[in-house]
Task: inverse folding
């Protein structure tokens, strides 16, 4: 359900010990930051969803992304990933996660929040939906600020850049 680290990413994690121990240590370090790297949705004691949210400048992979280049110089926060457990889908959990992430980023001083979801409203398989869908972000109040890149490689999924200004 959640993206797993590749072998190369695991090898690149700092520290000593097994890959599993280095992953735990890296997650513990993230959890100790002043700002959370994301939010979880629970049903009772069971985690059913996750959304990543952080200042764009703190997410090196997003900053370097050719698929989701900067729209402008605004100091935005970004939502690079949202996922809901298959058994919990269809109940508004993803929308609640997006809305809660916007509120969280606003509380932390974000002037605006961006996402780079799959363009269009066509249904897609789970492997292509972790960065969200355009209709999901529209329902949360986001607007398109850049249409899909025109000269993207054929195997790239068409993505739009969407933004919502932080409510004040």
Result:
């Amino acid at each position: 359900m959640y993206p797993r680290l590749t072998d190369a990413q695991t090898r690149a994690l700092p520290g000593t010990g097994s890959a599993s121990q280095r992953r735990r240590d890296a997650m513990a370090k993230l959890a100790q930051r002043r700002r959370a790297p994301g939010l979880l949705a629970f049903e009772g004691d069971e985690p059913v969803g996750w959304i990543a949210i952080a200042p764009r400048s703190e997410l090196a992979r997003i900053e370097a992304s050719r698929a989701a280049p900067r729209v402008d110089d605004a100091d935005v926060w970004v939502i690079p990933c949202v996922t809901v457990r298959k058994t919990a889908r269809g109940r508004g959990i993803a929308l609640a996660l997006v809305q809660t992430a916007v509120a969280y980023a606003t509380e932390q001083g974000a002037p605006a929040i961006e996402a780079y979801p799959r363009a269009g409203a066509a249904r897609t398989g789970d492997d292509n939906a972790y960065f969200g869908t355009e209709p999901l972000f529209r329902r949360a109040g986001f607007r398109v600020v850049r249409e899909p890149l025109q000269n993207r490689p054929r195997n790239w999924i068409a993505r739009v850049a969407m933004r919502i200004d932080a409510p004040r």
